[in-house]
Write a structure and sequence with these properties.
Helix 4 runs antiparallel to helix 5, helix 7 crosses helix 8 and helix 8 crosses helix 9. Helices cover 66% and strands 0% of the residues. The chain has 232 residues and is mainly alpha-helical. It is globular, with a radius of gyration of 23 Å.
Length: 232
């Protein structure tokens, strides 16, 4: 009688054809809609926190506020990614002026090969842009400034539109830098350190007012970037 082989055979890897995912180029109004939907979801969490506070569960409410900070930064980051894709495509299609940073973008050989075969089809460029920037975080001041320079948007105009107030001493660009970096740092402390400083492990204070100030700042910055983009 022949002995049966009950050992497991090795599974073949990567034998299925991967279905290509089509990258969508959204219009400005759609980009704004995505941002507003995300912001509305964040704002709805204030009601959850208020209910927890009313039941004496302050610690739980504070964690809701912390989650709002994390989601707010990711919402802003996603908005900047979509604006970057939109703007680079506008430059590529000749609708916006070419910037120095645009001229120096490095393209992998596989995208060059696709481009040569695609002829008039420009979908490859959108795929390249998505692949190039999808893993890059854009929300620190330096990152935002770099992306605005890439697209040809004046960061000073963004700062003025977002933060100009009659009689204020702080320059609008300095305020933009300060508030973006405060959000960036706080989000990182929450996400990577459970909102505790490394040097003493003390839990940082947070309140609804802190979250609302960040929301207000990001809203002003997004409106300013959207305005400049719309008027390129």
């Amino acid at each position: 009688m022949t002995e049966r082989n009950l050992s497991l055979s090795k599974r073949n890897e990567n034998i299925r054809d991967k279905n290509p995912v089509r990258v969508i180029r959204f219009q400005l109004s759609e980009i704004k809609q995505h941002y507003e939907e995300n912001i509305e979801a964040i704002r709805e969490q204030f009601l959850v926190a208020e209910e927890l506070v009313s039941k004496g569960k302050l610690r739980e409410a504070e964690n809701v506020w912390r989650s709002q900070v994390v989601f707010l930064e990711s919402t802003f980051d996603f908005f900047l990614h979509e604006i970057t894709k939109y703007g680079l495509c506008e430059i590529f299609l000749g609708n916006w002026d070419k910037t120095e940073k645009y001229q120096n973008i490095e393209i992998q050989m596989r995208f060059i090969e696709i481009a040569l075969k695609a002829r008039e089809n420009t979908d490859w460029f959108l795929e390249f842009v998505n692949n190039c920037y999808e893993k890059i975080t854009m929300v620190s001041f330096e990152s935002v400034k770099d992306q605005m320079n890439l697209l040809g948007i004046d960061i000073r105009a963004v700062a003025d539109r977002a933060f100009h107030e009659r009689g204020q001493e702080e320059k609008t660009k300095d305020k933009l830098k300060r508030r973006l970096n405060e959000l960036f740092r706080r989000r990182n402390i929450i996400a990577h350190q459970s909102d505790r400083e490394h040097f003493d492990a003390q839990l940082k204070e947070i309140s609804e007012d802190v979250v609302r100030r960040f929301l207000d700042d990001v809203g002003k910055i997004v409106e300013a970037i959207y305005y400049e983009t719309e008027n390129m």
